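Worked example 3 (structure in, sequence out).
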């Protein structure tokens, strides 16, 4: 993302600092930028790696280029490196409209407002309060790969859906399944949604005429 008078950062975060990756020592706008560059198919499988977010120790101010310990305000020019700052996750973000919050149960920051989510200890993740009394718990349900695209769901930045059976899947992957008339959970094969309307339509269809079979 090009830097303007009040706009710094990358496609993932708007903020005024970069990070030095503790794993390789290189400087990136954020951990997602690092992971896209260092954990891609273009990298040798032995060289692929991701940033351990909790181990980030150094940041670089985007305004004065001062390298410093992780902190919200630059120790040199005093600029606020991120309006939202989490010292546990080493996360900076000027876009507070995301309503970020840190969940101690998850151990990472989430978006959407702490008042709208609760942490399910059995599933091991934050779920919307709308699911609190209705979802089926599955041990560490979010600590799995998406059964369609195989991306790790717990740290995915994409929207995730909790199926009736309790298993989890990327929302976009679920839409693609339904577009191809696939309505069962890829993990347990139970219905992934309420099929009542479809069964009712099938019941209302006129019976097909049985064709006589000639014997030879």
């Amino acid at each position: 993302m090009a830097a303007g008078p009040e706009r710094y950062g990358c496609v993932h975060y708007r903020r005024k600092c970069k990070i030095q990756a503790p794993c390789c020592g290189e400087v990136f706008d954020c951990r997602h930028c690092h992971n896209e560059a260092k954990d891609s198919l273009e990298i040798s499988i032995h060289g692929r790696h991701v940033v351990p977010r909790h181990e980030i120790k150094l940041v670089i101010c985007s305004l004065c280029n001062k390298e410093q310990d992780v902190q919200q305000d630059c120790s040199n020019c005093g600029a606020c490196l991120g309006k939202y700052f989490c010292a546990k996750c080493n996360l900076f973000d000027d876009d507070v409209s995301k309503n970020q919050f840190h969940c101690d149960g998850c151990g990472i920051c989430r978006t959407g407002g702490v008042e709208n989510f609760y942490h399910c200890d059995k599933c091991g993740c934050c779920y919307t309060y709308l699911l609190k009394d209705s979802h089926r718990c599955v041990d560490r349900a979010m600590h799995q790969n998406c059964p369609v695209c195989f991306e790790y769901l717990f740290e995915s930045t994409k929207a995730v859906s909790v199926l009736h059976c309790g298993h989890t899947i990327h929302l976009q992957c679920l839409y693609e399944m339904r577009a191809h008339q696939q309505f069962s959970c890829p993990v347990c094969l139970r219905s992934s949604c309420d099929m009542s309307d479809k069964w009712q339509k099938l019941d209302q269809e006129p019976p097909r005429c049985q064709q006589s079979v000639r014997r030879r």
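Notes: Confidence is low (pLDDT under 50) at residues 1-5, 210-216. The helical segments are 31-38, 171-179, 196-204.
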